[in-house]
Amino acid sequence: MSNLLKEIEEILLMGPGPSDVPDEVYTALATHTIGHMDPYFITIMDEIKTQLQKVIKTSAKLTLPASGTGSAGMETCFVNLIEPGDRVLILINGVFGMRMQDVATRLGARVDTLEFEWGTPVIIDAVKKKLDINTYKIVAVVHAETSTGVRNPVAEIGTLLAGSDTLYLVDAVTSLGGMDVNMDKWGIDSLYSGTQKCLSCPPGLAPIAFSDKSVAALKGRKTKVPNWYLDLTMIINYWEGHTRAYHHTAPINMLYGLYQALDLVLAEGLDTVFRRHLENHQALVAGLEDMGMQMLVDEQYRLPMLNAVKVPDGIDEAGVRKALRMEHKIEIGAGLGPLAGKIWRIGLMGHTARPENVNRLLAALKTALGK
Ligand code: PLP
Q1: Does the Cβ of 202 fall within 6 Å of ligand 1?
Q2: Ligand 1: residue whose CA is nearest its atom 7
Q3: What is the per-residue pLDDT across 170-223, written as a single tens digit (0 to 9) for each?
Q4: Domain limits of the chain?
Q5: Contact assessment for residue 213 and residue 189, using Cβ atoms and an 8 Å cutoff
Q6: Architecture in CATH for domain 3-18+270-370
Q7: Could you read off the pLDDT of 148-162 as tens digits, one per residue?
């Protein structure tokens, strides 16, 4: 092994992702690499699709892990659905809504946005008013806004869009595997996620799912999908059917890792996994409040897996993070954009969401704050 790799220490990952990876997933990643057309591998691909359908709660046939991180999932959804001039509405209350706007604009969409204060959720009435005035091909929102710790009302927005021709596109990068994500019940047409948050697999794959309505929009395109690597009309021929056609070499070992990570989530049971995230979040918040700290987000909109806590007055934000990392071997995240220097982002994602980690962080934080 290279000397540099040997020097990497075990750091407890309590930031906005990646999260801690369980040993079973590391073992799976180290499995012997086989060919991407090998019958064993095709079986694993089929099983991953079924596992993803269970975790995403969808019967969508076009469900697969795209190659690349969560942003590749975002690009896959937008690039396959947008044609130049299409009207798109993006609901923004953090970094990842802004990234959606950037991606959709680059594809030549006519993008409208509704912006909400960072740290607060999307307001349904504002969306309703916008939809009363305009018709959109796509309405897009981030379920769990990792930059602020806010849960957006994804089910309610789905109800607003029900029965319309609009495609409902949702970012489930941080929510999937840590809280309920119910694609079919909530009327979602296009969903993407990532592996390194609550699925506790290293970064590198982006689960995506397209409803029949999205597949019809994809098949009905007047123009070719403008990105070769992410073109689902071609990728589908590798992931579906009796005979598979090579598109690009699948990231074999990453897919072993995801296969194992999804198996762990499903074996524990989705409801149990969600409860574990919630209980550890509650314990963390109680501990932080005992220390006199305040959360950024109102209780009813808080995410269990991403806890945004206000930096107390007079405290060196970066200094405390550095002390946690160097002296206690714990990584937490900083605030982004307007929240830079004002909050810490403490992740309780997937395998990280355990009482021993909550207690270790609270004790280390007490020391770092000189309490
Ligand atoms: N969407 C959300 C909500 C995220 O939290 C992230 C990453 O943190 C992304 C998209 C982008 O994913 P990645 O960094 O894996 O490309």
Answers
A1: no
A2: 70
A3: 999 999 999 999 999 999 999 999 999 999 999 999 999 999 999 999 999 999
A4: 3-18+270-370, 23-266
A5: yes
A6: Alpha-Beta Complex (3.90)
A7: 999 999 999 999 999
